[in-house]
Amino acid sequence: MNPLLGWGLAAVAVVGGFLAYGWQGVLLAVTVIVFWLLLQFGRALRAMRDAAAQPVGSTGNAVMLHAALRPGMRLLQILPLAGSLGQKVADDPETFVWTDAGGDRVRVQLRGGRTLAVQLERAGDAP
User: Fold this and answer.
1) pTM of the model
2) What pLDDT, on the 0 to 100 scale, is given for residue 3?
3) Orientation of helix 75-82 relative to helix 23-52, angle to 10°
4) d(Cα 79, Cα 87) in Å, to the nearest integer?
5) How far apart, in Å, do the first and last CA atoms of the chain sit?
């Protein structure tokens, strides 16, 4: 979701709550907004906790991970697919690598927190 759209909807909820129910409506709108933010925070923490429980840079199947990745995905969307935190190999653009047991690797480049490029490196292709 676009952050501007989310905050715009939150502002509309606060204003609508005030116009419909006064200060009780504002209180309800703020409560719903805080609840939504806590749900998002919990989701991010769960993804990070699950990914941190596995060895860094490992994945079950690099080919399946490569097939599931698309440009524009955020890192928190990639982590549940990969099952672990990626091994960081470069800074600009941020590049992470996941390797499976067969030696196949997936290289993901991120810029601005979104996937820029995805590359599959097969173990049999190396000279």
Assistant:
1) 0.78
2) 81
3) 40
4) 12
5) 43
Q: How many residues are recorded in the chain?
A: 127
d(CA 127, CA 118): 21
Mean pLDDT to the nearest integer, 104-119: 94
- CATH architecture of the domain 55-125 equals 2-Layer Sandwich (3.30)
Return all residues near 23 (Cβ < 8 A) that are at least 6 apart: none
CATH 3.30.1450.10 in the chain: give the residue spans: 55-125
Each residue's pLDDT tens digit, 3-44: 899 899 999 999 999 999 999 999 999 999 999 999 999 999
Q: Could you give the count of Cα atoms lying within 13 Å of 125 in the half-sphere of its Cβ?
A: 6
